Amino acid sequence: MATYTTPPSSLMLMYATSTVHAQDLTPSILSFNSHNKPTFSLYPLVVRTRKSELKWANLCSHRDPKHVVVAALAAEAELAEDDEEKEVAGEGAIATASVPSKPKKGKAALPLKMDRIRSKRFLEIQKLRENKKEYDLKTAISLLKEMTSTKFVETAEAHFRLNIDPKYNDQQLRATVNLPKGTGQTVKVAVLTQGEKFDEAKNAGADIVGGEDLIEQIKGGFMEFDKLIASPDMMVKVASLGKILGPRGLMPNPKAGTVTPNIPQAIEEFKKGKVEYRADKTGIVHIPFGKIDFSEDDLLVNFLAAVKSVETNKPKGAKGVYWKSAHICTSMGPSIKLNIREMLDYKLPSNV
Questions:
Q1: Minimal CA–CA distance to 249: which of 266, 269, 219, 225?
Q2: CB contact at 8 A, 268 and 262
Q3: 312 pLDDT band (50/70/90 cuts)?
């Protein structure tokens, strides 16, 4: 009698009974034939190990020489089934791997996701500049004028990323800058005042002048102005317009220069090119500094005035490196990255 032992925790016993004939058995099993007619009675005790291998657990012959206990038949049949399953799985994997993916064409083949939704015009002018290169100021202004290709006159914009967190009061940035060469836009100014200053505002060139009557018009939806200036004595009444003017950025504010006792001067400054700016919640300042049809020297003068204003109005709570990055672009064009050190040290030529 032969015995095969394995740890009890790794075994599962299977019991089966059947009667088979010689033609159903493999040659290895037929070696157990007795001298009489080859008919067998199976009472197999089959061991399954952790690795799913079937082995004989106990082989013993009966006293009757016509019968023999065979444990290999069930094992051999199950092993054959496992082999068939592996072959089918292998064929499926090969078939899946052999199917080639279709090559992408057009915008779908572009590496950057944002470029896939850009227009053909944008993708063409984007090739004029290197993506990660830092340009000196003079070269960047010249390149900016070359990259315009729209049917209307675009605005030149500056975007400064600063090392500030506006959620803290001592790191908020809101101020104004007087662009020496103007903005290139016609600004419509409305004034809220009363008494003697009413006539002063009209004589200074205000497009709309009013008091309580103008406040009621604004509450009714009147918004045909670009700037709203108010005298200090009107702010108690203007407070009721906060929900209407605040989201549009038109609410008068002393920091923006739109709440002042000197109304004629404020009107003149905004007409000539005074621009209000503030840092957004991510610490980025956006400032328009002219039109793309300005000369390069005029754009350069306006840009440096904007840089000086941002540097002068640095918040008290700003720590470490103040300037993180600087870009310029047109309204509908790609941005051009500037060399910050060269930008801050740049000095205008004497003939400008």
A1: 225
A2: no
A3: very high
For residues 9 and 3, what is the distance between their CA atoms, to the nearest angstrom?
18
pLDDT digits (tens, 9 = 90+) for 214-262: 999 999 999 999 999 999 999 999 988 989 998 888 999 888 889 999 9
Q: Give the closest residue to 241 by CA, choosing from 266, 258, 261.
A: 258
The two tokens of residue 256 are: 């923006």
Cα–Cα distance between 36 and 52 in angstroms, integer?
Answer: 35
Backbone angles phi, psi at 47, to 5 degrees: -105, 130
Which residue in this structure is represented by tokens 């470029």?
Answer: 115
Question: pTM for this structure?
Answer: 0.64
- Which among 149, 157, 109, 93 is positioned nearest to 126, based on CA atoms? 149
Average pLDDT over residues 18-26: 47
Predicted confidence at residue 338, as pLDDT, reads 94
Q: Which of 346, 335, 302 is nearest to 161 (CA)?
A: 335
- Alpha helix locations (H) across 8-136? 27-30, 72-98, 120-126
Contact predicate 292/166, CB 8 Å: no
Report helix angle 296-312 to 137-146, nearest 10.
130
Query: What residues are paired with 177 via a beta bridge?
Result: 275
CA-to-CA distance for 29 and 243, rounded, in angstroms?
Answer: 94
How far is it, in rounded angstroms, from Cα 336 to Cα 303?
A: 14
317-342 as b/e: b if 16+ CB within 10 A: ebeeebbeebbbbbebbbbbbbbbee
